[in-house]
C-alpha cells in the first residue's frame, strides 16, 4: 500500500478537527480507551454529543478555547492505502503552523463553513497550498446540515472557490459537500444530499493518484550522516545515510558528489532491513560507493549530467513567521537548506503579495507576521538547489534568527544562480 499525506486547511471553526475525528471514528481507527477518554471529556465540558474534535485538539489551551493551535498528526489505514493526517489551525496568528503541516502534504482539504462561504483565511490557506505546490486540493463545504442540505448553496461556494483557484496553480480540484458532525459524505455517501452524484471524501482519498506527483527523474540525495562503525566486524565500512529527495538510485549507477564534483558508482543500497535493489522517494537509506571520497553532511549525490545549481544568489517566495521582528532588507539570517546550513543577507524585497487580491505591492519595505513576498538572498556558501516547482525538497528552505535560533520564515526557491 502506498502512503498519502494530507492536511486540513481553512478558517477557524470551519470544522477541521471535527472532520478528522469523524474520519477516524467512522473508519474504526480508534482504540476503545481513546473513544472513552473523548466521551468523558465531552461529558465534563457539558457537550450534548461526543466531541470528536478532541481527538486531535490535545493541548489544554486547545480544549479550553475550542480551537486548534498546534499541528496534530494522526495515522490510519484502510485496505487500499495508508494515511498521515496533519490537522492544522485556522487562526491567522497560527498560519505558520499551517505552513508547517502542509509543506509535506500530497493533498489538502480546504474546509469552508456553508453558512459563511469563502472568507479571507480560506483564500489565504488556498493560496499557501498553491504556493507550497500541494498537487491536490479538495474543497469540503462543511455544515451542510445547517443550510438545509441546499444544493444551490454548495454550488455557489464551489463556483466561487473555483474562480479564485483559477488564479492559482491548482492542477487538481475536487468539491464535496459534507457534514463532519453527522458524518455525511465522509466515509459513505449521504442520503440527505441525493442531488450530489460525486464520491465520498474517503473514497476520493483512497483513489486519488499521487504516484506521478513524485519526481523520479532528477536524482537528489542530500547526505545527512556518514556511517563509520568502529568495529572489527566492519573494518572498512563507509556509508552515507539520508532520505531520497527525488529520482531512482540503483547499485551500479554512476553518481556525482557535490560540491566536489567527484564521480563514483553505487556499490550497494541498504536499509534497516538489509540491502535493497533500488531507492526512491521518500525512502531513507544508506548508500555505499565503490570509491573512497571525501563526503560529509551537507553534500549531495546526483547524476553527473543532471545536477542542481550551486547558487549563492537566491530568488524566493518567503512566508514570514516571526511576530516580533519583521523581515527587512539588509537583515542577516541563518538558512537551513536540505542538510546544508549557511548564512544569508536579504538584498532586496521585490514585492509583497496581497492574499485576497494577489496584488503585488512593490513599495513594501518589509514582511510582518504571516505576510508573503518575493525576496532576493545572498548566501555565504552555495546552496545545491532546484526550483521549488521542480523539487519541493531541494527547492525549499527555512530562515532562522541567529540570535534566538528560532525559525522565522519558510522559503520556496524561484530562481537560483
What does this structure look like?
This protein has 3 domains: 211 residues, P-loop containing nucleotide triphosphate hydrolases (Rossmann fold), CATH 3.40.50; 82 residues, Translation factors (Elongation Factor Tu (Ef-tu), domain 3); 108 residues, Translation factors (Elongation Factor Tu (Ef-tu), domain 3, Beta Barrel). 18% of the residues lie in helices and 34% in strands. It is built from 7 helices and 23 strands. Strands 7, 8, 9, 10, 11, 12, 13 and 14 form an 8-stranded antiparallel sheet that branches. The longest helix is centred in the middle third of the chain and has 15 residues.
> What is the total domain count?
3
- Calculate the terminal CA-CA distance, rounded to whole Å: 40 Å
Roughly how many Å is the radius of gyration?
A: 23 Å
Q: What percentage of amino acids are in beta strands? A: 25-35%
Strand tally? 23
> What is the CATH third-level topology name of the largest domain?
Rossmann fold
Shape: globular
Q: In the CATH hierarchy, what is the architecture of the largest domain at level 2?
A: 3-Layer(aba) Sandwich
Output mean pLDDT.
87
Q: Briefly note the structural class of the backbone.
A: alpha+beta
Q: Report the biggest beta sheet as strand number plus sense, adding barrel if it closes.
A: 8 strands, antiparallel
> What would CATH call the class of the largest domain?
Alpha Beta
Unreliably modeled segments: 59-69
Reading the helices and strands in chain order gives EHHHEEHEHEHEHEEEEEEEEEEEEEEEEE
The total count of helices amounts to 7
* CATH superfamily caption of the largest domain: P-loop containing nucleotide triphosphate hydrolases
The helix content is 10-25%
Amino acid at each position: 500500500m502506498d502512503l498519502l499525506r494530507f492536511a486540513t486547511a481553512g478558517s477557524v471553526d470551519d470544522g477541521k478537527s471535527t472532520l478528522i475525528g469523524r474520519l477516524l471514528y467512522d473508519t474504526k481507527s480508534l482504540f476503545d480507551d481513546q473513544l472513552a477518554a473523548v466521551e468523558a471529556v465531552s461529558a465534563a465540558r457539558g457537550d450534548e454529543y461526543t466531541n470528536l474534535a478532541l481527538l486531535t485538539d490535545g493541548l489544554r489551551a486547545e480544549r479550553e478555547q475550542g480551537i486548534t493551535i498546534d499541528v496534530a498528526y494522526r495515522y490510519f489505514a484502510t485496505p487500499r492505502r495508508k494515511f498521515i493526517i496533519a490537522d492544522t489551525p485556522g487562526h491567522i496568528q497560527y498560519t505558520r503552523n499551517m505552513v508547517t503541516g502542509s509543506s509535506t502534504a500530497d493533498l489538502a482539504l480546504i474546509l469552508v463553513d456553508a453558512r459563511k462561504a469563502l472568507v479571507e483565511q480560506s483564500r489565504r490557506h488556498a493560496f499557501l497550498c498553491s504556493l507550497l505546490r500541494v498537487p491536490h486540493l479538495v474543497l469540503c463545504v462543511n455544515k451542510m446540515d445547517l443550510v438545509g442540505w441546499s444544493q444551490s448553496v454548495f454550488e455557489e461556494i464551489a463556483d466561487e472557490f473555483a474562480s479564485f483557484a483559477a488564479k492559482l496553480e491548482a492542477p487538481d480540484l475536487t468539491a464535496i459537500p459534507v457534514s463532519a458532525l453527522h458524518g455525511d459524505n465522509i466515509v459513505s455517501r449521504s442520503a440527505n444530499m441525493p442531488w450530489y452524484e460525486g464520491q465520498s471524501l474517503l473514497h476520493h482519498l483512497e483513489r486519488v493518484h499521487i504516484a506521478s506527483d513524485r519526481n523520479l527523474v532528477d536524482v537528489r540525495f542530500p547526505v545527512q550522516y556518514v556511517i563509520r562503525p568502529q568495529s572489527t566486524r566492519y573494518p572498512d565500512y563507509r556509508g552515507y545515510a539520508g532520505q531520497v529527495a527525488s529520482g531512482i538510485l540503483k547499485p551500479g549507477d554512476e553518481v556525482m558528489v557535490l560540491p566536489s564534483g567527484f564521480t563514483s558508482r553505487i556499490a550497494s543500497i541498504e536499509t534497516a532491513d538489509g540491502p535493497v535493489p533500488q531507492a526512491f522517494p521518500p525512502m531513507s537509506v544508506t548508500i555505499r560507493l565503490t570509491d573512497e571520497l571525501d563526503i560529509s553532511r551537507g553534500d549531495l549525490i546526483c547524476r553527473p549530467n543532471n545536477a542542481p545549481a550551486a547558487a549563492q544568489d537566491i530568488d524566493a517566495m518567503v512566508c514570514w513567521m516571526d511576530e516580533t521582528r519583521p523581515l527587512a532588507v539588509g537583515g542577516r539570517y541563518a538558512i537551513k537548506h536540505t542538510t546544508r546550513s549557511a548564512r544569508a543577507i536579504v538584498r532586496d524585497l521585490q514585492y509583497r503579495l496581497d492574499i485576497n487580491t494577489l496584488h503585488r505591492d512593490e513599495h513594501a519595505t518589509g514582511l510582518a507576521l504571516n505576510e508573503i513576498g518575493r525576496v532576493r538572498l545572498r548566501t555565504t556558501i552555495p546552496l545545491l538547489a532546484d526550483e521549488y516547482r521542480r523539487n519541493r525538497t531541494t527547492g525549499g528552505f527555512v530562515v532562522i534568527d541567529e540570535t534566538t535560533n528560532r525559525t522565522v520564515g519558510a522559503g520556496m526557491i524561484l530562481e537560483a544562480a
